[in-house]
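TICKET: design request
STATUS: open
ATTACHED STRUCTURE:
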């Protein structure tokens, strides 16, 4: 295998105590988030559901506009301020957001575990598009020093709250409210590189960089080039023009 080749691996998401995919089909999926069950749209679920009747506490009804709006319909009371969930040593609050998700992305759990296996107390990691910080905290739990970047102040504050909930408020984590693409571009320029912001959609261009060894994937953005500049020696992009979304498995974006 040449140095430019990528070895793609398939990571299989398994249920855990606070999350599980119960059923899917007909363009929807039924999931368990702690003691609550929700139905959400899933365009890729084109098959017939295994169960004829789904019992859920809430259903997200998508809007007809192109911006992807919608609303939640609740069959039973669900805490509006959220409820506590956990994954390994990480504790965090889930909530029904206006964007149909639950304030974190459970399908990223295999990536959290994948990244944990590559980090430790002497590691440093950068989480771009870090959202509410579940991925950041999963990495911080290994003892790694973290930099968490997200443009949403509300999301970063939620990440700090999740850190406190996890008993990690004193962990070496820098919480930055900044545009992740611009942040990466600035870091690249400061290291003597010239780069343009990635032309992929924002929601698909997150990346995590960790100082754990030599580069193992092809840089496809400012964060990727940062890995080659010496400041961040290893990068794990979650998307690149040459690979399917998350095929290189990783970035803590959407976490």
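STATUS: resolved
RESOLUTION: sequence designed for all positions
ATTACHED SEQUENCE:
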């Amino acid at each position: 295998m040449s140095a430019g080749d990528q070895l793609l691996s398939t990571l299989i998401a398994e249920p855990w105590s606070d999350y599980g995919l119960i059923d899917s089909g007909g363009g929807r999926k039924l999931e368990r988030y702690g003691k609550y069950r929700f139905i959400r749209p899933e365009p890729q679920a084109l098959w017939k559901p295994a169960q004829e009747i789904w019992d859920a506490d809430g259903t997200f009804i998508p809007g007809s506009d192109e911006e992807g709006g919608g609303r939640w319909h609740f069959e039973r009371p669900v805490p509006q301020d959220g409820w506590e969930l956990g994954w390994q040593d990480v504790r965090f609050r889930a909530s029904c957001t206006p964007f149909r998700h639950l304030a974190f992305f459970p399908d990223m759990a295999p990536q959290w575990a994948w990244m944990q296996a590559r980090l430790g107390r002497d590691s440093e990691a950068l989480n771009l598009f870090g959202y509410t910080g579940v991925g950041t905290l999963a990495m911080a739990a290994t003892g790694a020093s973290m930099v968490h970047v997200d443009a949403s102040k509300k999301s970063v504050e939620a990440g700090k709250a999740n850190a406190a909930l996890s008993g990690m408020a004193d962990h070496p984590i820098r919480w930055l409210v900044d545009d992740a693409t611009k942040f990466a571009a600035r870091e690249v320029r400061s290291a003597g590189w010239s780069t343009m912001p990635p032309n992929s959609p924002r929601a698909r261009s997150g990346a995590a960089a960790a100082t754990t060894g030599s580069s193992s994937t092809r840089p496809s953005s400012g964060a990727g080039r940062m890995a080659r500049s010496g400041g961040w020696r290893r990068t794990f992009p979650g998307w690149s023009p040459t690979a399917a979304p998350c095929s290189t498995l990783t970035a803590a974006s959407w976490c």
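CLOSING REMARK: The two ends are 32 Å apart (CA to CA). The mean pLDDT is 79.
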